[in-house]
């Protein structure tokens, strides 16, 4: 089985941008994944010789027990359950939000290995862009730009080492 990476984070942090970059020029629809739900949010990527599967998620908002946001939270929980490693994306331009803390609590309970990744970091100093996020207690944050590709290959190599 290829290792499975789940992309998790609140809406608009850049999950789908990262997903598209990781699965670019691949068949974004993985036709047959034994044991995994067939879903358009599954894709296949490769760094060097290492293939992996990646799951995009719709976003994670703590909300009422019905409606679209609740469904998206369910989808995220399922993705985390299927993942070997979770890439938890936050927005380095917006900084920390209460939702980021809620997601952190959920991920910690999941027991999955988590990489805290600060997106939208292009053109910003590392120390400035990550400083907000140490208090999440998820270790040293990674800084990337999904849109420009900065840091993405190294991130995935490290994620696969953890998977
Ligand atoms: P999602 O809701 O987490 O899937 O986020 P999207 O991938 O849809 O991106 C939300 C917005 O952030 C879009 O306008 C993207 O163009 C923008 N965005 C994504 N990645 C980056 C990045 O690395 N840098 C900047 N500046 N913007 C980004
Ligand atoms: Mg998205």
From TrEMBL:
| Record gene name | der
Q: Ranges for the EngA-type G domain?
A: 3-163
Q: Where is the signal peptide?
A: none
What domain of life does the native source organism fall in? Bacteria
Q: Where are the transmembrane segments?
A: none
Q: How does it assemble?
A: Associates with the 50S ribosomal subunit.
Entry protein name: GTPase Der
> What family is reported?
Belongs to the TRAFAC class TrmE-Era-EngA-EngB-Septin-like GTPase superfamily. EngA (Der) GTPase family.
User: Where does the chain bind GTP 1?
Assistant: 9-16, 56-60, 119-122
Q: What role does it play?
A: GTPase that plays an essential role in the late steps of ribosome biogenesis.
């Amino acid at each position: 089985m290829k290792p499975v990476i789940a992309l998790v984070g609140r809406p608009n942090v850049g999950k789908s941008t990262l997903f598209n970059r990781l699965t670019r020029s691949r068949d974004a629809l993985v036709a047959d994944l034994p044991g995994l739900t067939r879903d358009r949010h599954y894709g296949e990527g490769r760094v060097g010789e290492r293939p992996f599967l990646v799951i995009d998620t719709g976003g994670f908002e703590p909300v009422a027990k019905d409606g679209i946001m609740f469904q998206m939270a369910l989808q995220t929980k399922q993705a985390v359950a299927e993942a070997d490693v979770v890439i938890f994306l936050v927005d380095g331009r917006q900084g920390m939000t209460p939702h980021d803390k809620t997601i952190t609590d959920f991920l910690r309970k999941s027991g999955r290995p988590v990489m805290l990744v600060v997106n939208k970091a292009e053109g910003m100093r590392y120390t400035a862009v990550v400083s907000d996020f140490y208090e999440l207690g998820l270790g040293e944050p990674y800084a990337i730009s999904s849109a420009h590709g900065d840091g993405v290959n190294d991130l995935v190599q490290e994620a696969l080492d953890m998977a």
